[in-house]
Amino acid sequence: MLLSRLRPLPTLPCVSSTDDPRDDAAAAAAAAEGEPEDIFAAFLAHLLPDDAPQFHGDPGQYLLYSSPRYGDLTIQVPSYPDQNARESSRPQPSDSDSSANNVDSDSDAGQVEAQRKLFAHFVWSSGLVVAEAIEDAHAGHEHVDEMWKVEGERVLELGAGAALPSIVSILAGASEVTITDHPSSPALRGAIEFNLKRNILAANGCAVSIQAHEWGTLAPDSWAVANQGRFTRIIAADCLWMELQHKNLAQTMKWFLAPEGRVWIVAGLHTGRPVVVRFLKTVVEMGLEVDTIYERDQTTSCTGGDDEIRRDWVEVREEEGPENRARWCIVVRLKHAS
Asked: Which InterPro entries does the annotation name (predicted)?
């Protein structure tokens, strides 16, 4: 099961004297296996699939992502300023929560609240969906979803947070991976760098970079200008909940997408189906079009292509509500309009 791949690490194992960040993978796994409550939490999605979690980890925590192909990956959840001084919380974005765009960033409290509302300080289930799909596409199974292959591709991740999809893309043979998040994101203050150093021994010819980027800020940004139309694969995992940013996000996708490139979007339904519907209308207005779209049960696994449960995308499901939609996510592939 996909969601059970991720488990908390009670403590971070020390890096060995060989300076090889993965020499202590066995110690990390042993540490995770020793916590009964963590084992129970990892299997809650099996017991209560309709309440499948949309995000994982606490700010600053270390998680163990168990990859069948690449082994155990240690992932640091991004922190945020004055974390120790304020009570740790797990805010859940709502349909109407667009206030992240209107925070008074001149005050320290406003900056902290703005950064929290970026929701970079979690690992999102949508990111797990992308990471697993990329990994599975390169695993050599008989039934492989070719749309997720990144070998030789130039990959851009938007709103990366802990950047798990980017890390798996590097391991899967992408030629270039650029990891981006909002300039004020706490992920840019060490978590992304740690996750790269911890899990990537050698880039194997992959050019890896980290870049602060605010969606929609394009022509004034020298980096954006230099990379217009460059990326053949763009990843956006759980980036749709802030509706005031839909147009900016669509502009950024179109700007950076290579002529024959594809955008991968995975969106959880925790903020409701209408948010996804409205974003899809926005991307069409911005000059992109839907190449592929379906709904996926996040509690299933795509490994080997036999267990993943999919269904057709519809804009309205009469029987759907908060009590039964959490297990589902929307998977979309976009391309430039014909």
From this structure: Methyltransf_16 (IPR019410), SAM-dependent_MTases_sf (IPR029063)
